[in-house]
Automatic annotation (TrEMBL):
GO terms for molecular function: phosphatidic acid transfer activity. It comes from Paralvinella palmiformis. GO terms for cellular component: cytosol; mitochondrial intermembrane space; nucleus. InterPro entries: MDM35_apoptosis. GO terms for biological process: phospholipid translocation. Pfam families: UPF0203. This is Uncharacterized protein.
Length: 81
């Protein structure tokens, strides 16, 4: 799967490679220390920037809905509609 932003694609590829190698060679053998966390943080920053550039509201995306009183309510109308 491609990243949300082309600018993040190399970071995604690097993180995926790092994670898969760590999971296979370390985690499955009991080593829990995440060697890829810095790559993940860099990729996460890039993805969030790409999301904002596409006009997607991160607060709305990250809002907890399932299991709350908001789960089955109709979303509020968008401005101007």
């Amino acid at each position: 799967m491609n990243s949300i932003s082309q600018e993040c694609q190399q970071l995604k590829n690097d993180y995926d490679h790092c994670f898969n190698k760590w999971f296979r060679d370390k985690f499955l053998r009991g080593v829990k220390e995440d060697e890829c966390k810095e790559l993940f943080k860099a990729y996460q920053v890039c993805v969030k920037k790409g999301i904002r550039e596409k006009g997607i509201n991160l607060e709305e995306v990250e809002r907890n809905i399932l299991g709350t009183e908001h789960e089955k309510t109709t979303p509020p109308p968008k401005d101007g509609h």
